[in-house]
């Protein structure tokens, strides 16, 4: 979840755990979904992307909303009792939400480390992220290879200039988890998560652990490292059900810079192969 996912989880936050398939794999390191564990492990980080994980990410988000994953709908039969936050934790969470509510746009550099629980290896990548309210994101991966992921106008775009592919799929932003929508100023983390402070001697900020109030097939937990002075998210970590972790650290954060919508338009070459899954969904 990247900012998605968490942020994302993006991550934020936009990190998710859709059902697995041998024939469905997305680019490793994508902020929209975790890398596949099976063949992706043998192919390595520089492999060409498949086409369907973005679509399955969107289906996983819709499924979570339908099954009651959102705080304002669905059955509450499996909902865990809400434990009151400690006063200092609630004060920090309220300040963090207020920070993003008054932030219209931001840019930041990011470092992503995906740690495979089973294989016990870590894949690293880095780049730049741009965010513009109400619901536009652009993740520009620079290392180890160039890739671009954009969320705009209820669609997600994954562009791999080396493989010459552009994949497009629908994403309904009103069905995203609060771990993403709080960045847009509309989601309330406390309505979907039990939030507690965790010990972290190596952290620069305060580490918060967010556990879903309902079981969620996409992730086990979200961890947010928050600057106690500014209430900005310094690092977002999404823990998959199998224990693998997608951690994204942010630096050089700049807010309310007047980012143009034009920066969320993708420029591709004439020989790029376009896979438009939005048409297949109609």
Explain the overall architecture.
By secondary structure, this protein is α+β, with helices and mostly antiparallel strands. The protein has a single domain (2-74, 85-256, 265-281), classed as Clam (outer membrane lipoprotein receptor (LolB), chain A). The chain has six helices and 13 strands. The protein has helices at residues 9-12, 39-43, 53-66, 87-101, 178-181, 277-281; strands at residues 2-3, 105-116, 121-132, 136-143, 147-152, 155-160, 165-170, 193-198, 206-212, 221-226, 233-239, 245-255, 273-276. Strands 8-9-10-11-12-2-3-4-5-6-7-13 form a twelve-stranded mixed beta sheet. The longest helix has 15 residues, at 87-101. It is globular, with a radius of gyration of 17 Å. The relative contact order is 0.22. Residues 1-30, 32-58 and 68-77 have low confidence and may be disordered.
Number of domains: 1
Q: Which consecutive residue ranges, at least 5 long each, have pLDDT under 50?
A: 1-30, 32-58, 68-77
Largest sheet composition: 12 strands, mixed
Q: Report strand order across the widest sheet.
A: 8-9-10-11-12-2-3-4-5-6-7-13
Q: Please give the number of β-strands.
A: 13
Helices and strands, in N-to-C order?
EHHHHEEEEEEHEEEEEEH
What's the architecture in CATH terms? Clam
- State the end-to-end distance: 27 Å
Please state the average pLDDT score: 75
Number of helices: 6
Strand content: 25-35%
Question: Briefly, what CATH class?
Answer: Mainly Beta
Provide a brief overview of the structure:
The chain has 282 residues and is α+β, with helices and mostly antiparallel strands. The protein has six helices and 13 strands.
């Amino acid at each position: 979840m990247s900012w998605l996912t968490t942020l994302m989880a993006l991550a934020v936050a936009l990190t998710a755990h859709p059902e697995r398939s041998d024939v469905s794999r997305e680019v490793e390191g994508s902020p929209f979904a975790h890398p596949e564990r099976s063949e992706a492990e043998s192919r390595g980080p520089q492999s060409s992307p498949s086409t369907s994980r973005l679509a399955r990410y969107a289906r996983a988000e819709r499924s979570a909303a339908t099954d009651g994953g959102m705080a304002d709908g669905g059955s509450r039969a499996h909902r865990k009792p809400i434990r009151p936050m400690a006063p200092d934790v609630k004060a920090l969470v309220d300040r963090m939400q207020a920070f993003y509510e008054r932030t219209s746009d931001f840019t930041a550099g990011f470092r992503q480390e995906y740690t495979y629980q089973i294989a016990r290896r870590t894949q690293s990548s880095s780049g730049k992220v741009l965010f513009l309210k109400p619901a536009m994101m652009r993740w520009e991966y620079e290392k180890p290879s160039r890739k671009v992921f954009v969320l705009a106008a209820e669609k997600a775009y994954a562009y791999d200039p080396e493989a010459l592919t552009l994949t497009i799929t629908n994403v309904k932003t009103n069905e995203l988890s609060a771990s993403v929508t709080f960045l847009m100023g509309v989601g309330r983390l406390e309505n979907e998560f039990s939030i507690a402070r965790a010990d972290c001697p190596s952290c620069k900020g305060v580490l918060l652990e967010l556990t879903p109030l309902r079981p969620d097939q996409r992730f086990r937990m979200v961890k947010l490292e928050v600057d106690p002075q500014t209430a900005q998210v310094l690092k977002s970590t999404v823990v998959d059900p199998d224990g693998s972790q997608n951690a994204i650290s942010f630096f050089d954060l700049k807010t309310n810079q007047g980012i143009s919508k034009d920066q969320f338009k993708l420029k591709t070459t004439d020989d790029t192969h376009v896979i438009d899954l939005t048409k297949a969904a109609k």
